[in-house]
Amino acid sequence: MKARNLILVGAATALFLAGGLLAPTDPSYPDSSNVQTVDRAAESIPLFEARAALDPNAVDLTLVAQLYERDSRETGDLRSLQRAEEAASRAIGLNPEYAPAQLALASAYFSQHRFSEASAVAQEANRLDPKLGGLALQADVMVATGSYEAAADLYERAEAYAASPGLQARLAYLEELHGEVDQALLHMKLAAVADLGAGSGGEQAAWYQVRLGDLEFVRGDLAEADRRYQAALVIFPNYYIALAARGKVAAAKGTVSAAISFYEQAIAVIPRPEFLAAVGDLYTRNGDDERAADSFATVEAIASLSDGVYDRALSLFFSDHGRPAEALDLAEDGLATRHDIYAFDAKAWALYRSGRHQEACQVIEPALALGSVDPVLRYHAGAIFLACDQVDRGRAELQTALERNPEFHPVFAGEAKALLQGTDW
Amino acid sequence: MRIYIKAGAYFLVLAMALALGVARGPASLKAADHLDGPGLTSPGGDSRLDINDVYAFRSAANSRNAVMIMTVNPAAGALSGQKGFSANGLYQFRIDYNGDAETDATVTFNFARANAKGVQNWTVRGSGRLSGLSASGHTGNTTNLPGGGKVKAGVFDDPFFFDLNNFLAVDFSCSDPGNFFKGLNTNAIVLELPRTRLGDDKVGVWARTLLNGNPIDRMGRPAINTVFIPANIFEPGEPSRRNAFNATHPLNDRRKWTDEVTDTLELFQTPAEAAALAKVLLPDILTVDFSSSAGFLNGRRLADDVIDAELNLVTKGAVTTDCVANDSAFKSSFPYLAPAS
After folding, report:
1. Above 60 in pLDDT, residue B270?
2. pTM of the model
3. Are A199 and B82 within 8 A, CB to CB?
4. Which of A412, B161, B239, B258 sits between 20 and 30 A of A333, alpha carbons compared?
5. Which among A158, A237, A250, A251 has a CA at the least distance from the CA of A201?
6. What is the DSSP secondary structure assignment for residue B338, as one 8-state letter?
């Protein structure tokens, strides 16, 4: 890790000298010279499905699985993951020794939050071909389930096989989880530069811009965050994640109508529960209770169709909308299989909303263990500690939540400020 | 080297494992993506710069002309979504006139971004012994070169043929053979030059792609990198050496890569035989005598069954065929490749 950081610091210095990290010439921004046109996976799926139908074989079926996996990223449609799983399973049935088929199946499991299955199949893929990416996918599972140190070790091993922007991005995410936001931002920029330099485009290149925007948002630079999200939309129009992210920025700026518009555009692409919950909150803030109720009703409907993928988002939604018992059930189910910081956060928040403050104070501790400065997580911690009469700690957490981005959330930022004022003396 | 065989490909090594009774895991295609992050594709992961195959033969329609073809972009980008030719990269035919592996002439193509209809303008320039060559055109059309010759760049039927699935399943029984590449397209640059313009008939040809001045892929003879250069998949901790091979100038091939080639060959050959064969296979340059209409190992014609030839060669006859033959309807005249499906 140290050697890698030295290299990255050197590269960052070069990047800074080349144009300044925040300057318009920042090479981590896409422009007409470095971003490529990439067709959507949906355009190629019929070709390979037809080939696999005509002559069922492991390679074509694996290609179908890989294309559906990419399609799920591009569209947000979880049904594509089921199709990826089905195609990969058929490929493995025809040739169990075909490592790419194993990895495609592992990836489909992972994206459906079936972590133990993903890990087992990724291990098999890794056994068949250690350079294929199974190692990194195993590490992804570890991050998703809270084994952070083991994940970091595996990423390092995977990097030894094939350093790539994707791995750099994953390491940057680990830094973000540990509260090293500036470091994470720097490394994400380097990853984006490398990705663009390799001829990236489409959803993949847009994803890097969104991640950069998210880090800028945490840092409180709303203008820069929005520039990143706009850049993502130029590369990949109607990118639902970037549209919702622009809604988040607009809400933080207090332009509620614009925020609603962005969220509705994202929902028109794919009605993800977290988008619906966010727009519902904004309708509430605008006094439009009818539309808010419609959005909230849809949250549950969509989540119920998603085989648990959105259980955590649904738990938080229930916690914040007067249904703490259901929130707690979901959070406890989640903790049965995952021990990442957000699993503890969800349970602690459900306990807090249930009035079980002392338990919440215990459960929130592991969520803070890494040092994440995620403002929503810190707000939760602040509110919980105050409820346990740990006033100093609670105030410190709320101040941390508001420190970088005083408008981090359309509802929670105001509540954090109110709680701080309420404890002011 | 097409990604079907390249990314973890070890290809004939599997056949060797079969023959040795130590069947191992099969080849990979590409790293997969997942929802929480982009794919673990390599920095050189632009499929448009991925060389599939290189061909060099005397024109059957006009024996006074030499033909060089470079196919790139597996499945013409249907898998990666990256269509056409890279607007940031360079595509080169490199020609050695005297067998010293030095580049004596280079023909470099670069492409502009595609217009709304997917058409890309291109320019070509020669250097060294072909320094007078200069022209421009656009994909899909045939362009006559000032001074003689013609070029066509675009999408064609992929001429390669190989029973990938049965190979991966370690099945050489020929009970149900099938050409995996049937019906798949590829991007290609077809360059035809009067032999007089080329200067000499006996030359060596190889193709190279570059991105921002950095070498991305290279190829001369079929599958040298994928067959002989280890991805080291059975040696965790040992990185793949294929990118290093791609970055090597053929001039240094014998010095840098002979050991790797003989390591593989010695699975079937005596050390002396392997050493002799390695000298033929390296440097990775496709040698051709354009005065002859013969095919592989004299250059490579579109219908030459290079897989069978290499299986035979490498396994010393232990595996003789993948049981598939060409099924493309090649044209008898320029641009020779079959139309895209």
Report:
1. yes
2. 0.87
3. yes
4. A412
5. A237
6. P
* Cβ separation A44–B79 shorter than 8 A: yes
Instruction: For chain A, say whether B179 makes contact (Cβ under 8 Å).
Output: no
Mean pLDDT computed over every residue of chain A:
90
> Long-range contacts for A3-8 (Cβ within 8 Å, ≥24 apart)?
A4/A156, A4/A159, A4/A171, A8/A186, A8/A187, A8/A190
Q: Please indicate whether, in this complex, the C-beta atoms of B32 and A69 are within 8 angstroms of each other.
A: yes
Tokens of A266: 């994202």
* Range list of H helices, chain B: 3-6, 11-20, 164-168, 195-198, 224-228, 242-247, 253-265, 271-281, 306-315
Write out pLDDT tens, residues A160-218: 666 678 888 999 999 999 999 999 999 999 999 988 887 788 999 999 999 999 999 99
Separation between Cα atoms, residue A284 and residue A270, nearest integer Å = 21
Rounded Cα gap, residues B269 and B2, in angstroms: 27
> Chain A closest CA to B25's CA: distance in Å?
5
- At residue A291, the 3 state secondary structure works out as helix
CB A52, CB A68: distance < 8 Å: no
Closest CA in chain A for residue B212: A197
| Alpha carbon distance A126, A121 (integer Å) | 9
CA B280 to each of CA B103, B221, B236, B273: distance values in angstroms, whole numbers, following the listed order: 18, 11, 31, 11
- Bridge-based pairing of strands B65-72 and B150-157 is unpaired
Q: What is the pLDDT of residues A318-329, one digit of tens each?
A: 999 999 999 999
Rounded to whole angstroms, what are the CA distances from B10 to A100, A129, B13, B28, B225?
Answer: 14, 11, 5, 9, 9
| B124 Cβ neighbours under 8 A, 6+ residues apart | B107, B108, B109, B133, B134, B135, B136, B137, B145, B151, B191
Using an 8 Å Cβ cutoff, are A63 and A56 in contact? no
CA neighbours closer than 13 Å in the CB half-sphere of residue A88: 27
Is the CB of B177 inside 8 Å of chain A's CB atoms? Answer: no
Kindly report the number of other CB atoms within 10 A of residue B318's CB atom. 16
Q: Report whether pLDDT(A14) > 60.
A: no
Residue B23: Cβ within 10 Å count:
12
Residues 6+ apart with CB under 8 A from B59: B65, B66, B67, B192, B333, B334, B336
Amino acid type, B128: G
How large is the ipTM?
A: 0.81
- The residue count of chain A comes to 425
> How far is residue B121's CA from residue B139's CA, in Å, rounded to a whole number?
6
Beta carbons of B89 and A63 less than 8 Å apart: no
CB B46 within 8 A of CB B72: no
Query: How crowded is residue B69: how many other Cβ atoms within 10 Å of its Cβ?
Result: 26
pLDDT at res. A163: 66
Q: Do A370 and A148 form a contact (C-beta atoms < 8 A)?
A: yes
User: What are the DSSP calls for B15-59, one per residue?
Assistant: HHHHHHT---------PPPBTTB-----TT--GGG-EEEEEEEE-
DSSP annotation of B114: P
Distance (Å) from the C-alpha of residue A222 to the closest C-alpha of chain B? 23
Contacts of B213 (CB under 8 A, 6+ apart): none
Between B285 and B79, residue with greater pLDDT: B285
Neighbours of A108 (CB within 10 A): 31
Enumerate the residues of chain B whose CB falls inside 8 A of the CB of residue A55: 178
Give the whole-angstrom CA distance, residue A365 versus residue A356: 15
